[in-house]
Amino acid sequence: MLAMNYRGPFRVRADQKPYPEILHPNDAIVRVTRSCICGSDLHLYHGLVPDTRVGTTFGHEFIGIVEEIGPSVTKLKVGDNVLVPFNIACGQCAFCKQELYGNCHESNPQATAVGGIFGYSHTAGGFDGGQAEYVRVPYADVGPTIIPADMDPDDAVLLTDVVPTGYQAAEMGGIKKGDTVVVFGAGPVGIMAAKCAWLFGAGRVIIIDHLEYRLEFARNYAQCEAYNFRSLEDPVLFIKKTTDWFGADVCIDAVGGDAAGSAMQTITGRKMMLQAGSATALHWAINSVKKGGIVSIVGVYGPTDNLVPIGNVVNKGITIRANQASVKRLLPRLIEHIQAGRLDPKGIITHRIPLEEVADAYHIFSAKLDNCIKPILIPPTAVFNKGGQTSWKIQ
Fold this sequence. Notes:
26% of the residues lie in helices and 22% in strands. By secondary structure, it is α/β, with parallel strands linked by helices.
């Protein structure tokens, strides 16, 4: 089968790889019809996540059709059209029973933090991902969810990660009616977090980034204020000034270890790898939030140390909340939001690219070319539009 193949930092290609097999009675094999490149895939692509091994297939955002099931699978049948959460969760461990599906203890038992994740290095279990024609899905009775008949597949594929992560970022912020919410990062997750902040009652939503095309997209899609930090003397000072010197009620870090904006953080976190990525956005969030405020973190950092102003956290009485999104827990309400027209996930998709051209897709997304917000990969075995033809950019 055709699959994305990681060959080292900034090097990926489409290769023929072995067809996945049922390895456990609870497995399923899914034929992928859509997969995405996630902003957090770029952390892997850039070599920022430890133990990302050559030969790995990335991709934790995908939907498809069930092709084969193990003998113990009871909730799926061959032919079902499913969306597959990025969390690989057993459904039975102590953490799954708390609906902390991103912290499953069985899918990644050698880790002390994150559970299993499709296509996200051996620190997340070493599972191959969905940027391929077929993928093995463990615990098939737990994660995979049948896509409602009336749901657009483009909406469904974004329910595997982007929408739940943006929504949980806002949820973890404990947003109250009238709150000022600042989101650092106008990538897909940051834009979705800004959009979802309104659902929790925010009175003002601000997004900070440095790419004008992403800021303009955020203004139109999330109906929020958007500012380029390169045009500001100091983003923290700006936020304090615009909030009567109190600071924001809630700050969301939707960037993670690839953040720009600080030469010192970039050199130590992205160039020399002396810390687990650049913590610029996290610094700004901690220093911009009000005393007693909440910082919500969904940006991806490596598992080692970061240079973080923990003294400011203590002295300001800040609450920090962070985790991988528990997709399965959030799906029922997110499906309701989409069906009611309150969320339009497919609206952030800008590019459809054949899986065969995955190297170009990563380059476009990583280098921020062609006003790319969210790219979808289409395997050759998937028919995704009336003409059956791929298009590089959605007009």
